Amino acid sequence: MARELFSTVQDQRDNVLSNRVADQINQLILDRDLKAGDRLPNEYELCEELNVGRGTLREAVKLLVARNCLEIRRGIGTFVAEKTGQIEDPLGFNYVEDKVQLAKNLMEIRLRLEPWVAALAAERIQEEEKAELINLCNELENEIRNGRDHGPLDKKYHTYIAKCSHNSVMPELIPIITYSVDMFTKLRDPKLLATTIQTHRAIADAICRNDTVSAEKCMREHILANEDGLSQMDTLIAPIRRTDLQ
Fold it and tell me: Which residue in 197, 174, 186, 180 sits closest to 240, CA to CA?
């Protein structure tokens, strides 16, 4: 009994120490202004600098890898993660059984959020960003017209609009919202693809004109068209198990 109690107390101390060292590594990244893809000092240097043992350091690194703050490249070293702190499925959407209802719920959020984001992008977009937005729109249209999977580019398009808002929080929120974009490309009727091309173009043009009113209006029309298409698809796929849409 005493041995088990000692083991539990020791585990708690180790966890506290590992978390403390993880915080120190995060602070080191900030202090040295390390960016995504930058390499951390090697294990020996970090142990010396943080005054900890190799075991504790390795546990701290594991914690930061799990939080997607660091990535380990075998035989090369430890690096700042490309999407620091972003977890692929932070809200556990993959485990929601009714994917159609989830898509509807996400659409409700997008309808309230993204028109405002588009208006903000129209107000704040930099001149050098306009060409990239139009280029993304062209690439996306080309993928659709050639019958290829346009989901990845669709998400990139919406994420770039969020970036053009120059609100530092928005790019962190949009990947959650664009989960529904990925789902919707699997659900949609091909008849809606022409509408997608049209509304994407209208949104990009309005943002590049710095027309906040039109950008907000066009984004709302785009999401409403998606929402309508989703309702139509819901009727068509009723006999199918909804978990098959994953």
Answer: 186
The domains found in the chain, sorted by start residue, are 2-80 (1.10.10.10), 93-245 (1.20.120.530)
Tokens standing for 68? 């997607």
* Interval 12-57: pLDDT, tens: 565 788 889 998 998 998 899 888 889 999 999 999 999 999 999 9
On the CB side of 36, CA atoms within 13 Å amount to 7
What 3-state DSSP class applies to 68? coil
DSSP H helices in the chain: 2-31, 43-50, 54-66, 99-124, 127-145, 151-164, 170-177, 179-187, 193-208, 212-236
Structure tokens that stand for 12 in this block: 């708690």
Question: What pTM was estimated for this model as a whole?
Answer: 0.66
Cβ–Cβ < 8 Å for 60, 22: yes
The type of residue at 29 is: I
- Joined together, the tokens standing for residue 230 give 């989703």
Per-residue pLDDT tens digits for 159-173: 899 999 999 888 778
By CB neighbour count within 10 A (0-12 exposed, 13-18 middle, 19+ buried), where does 116 fall?
middle
State the first-to-last Cα distance of the chain, in angstroms, to the nearest integer. Answer: 47
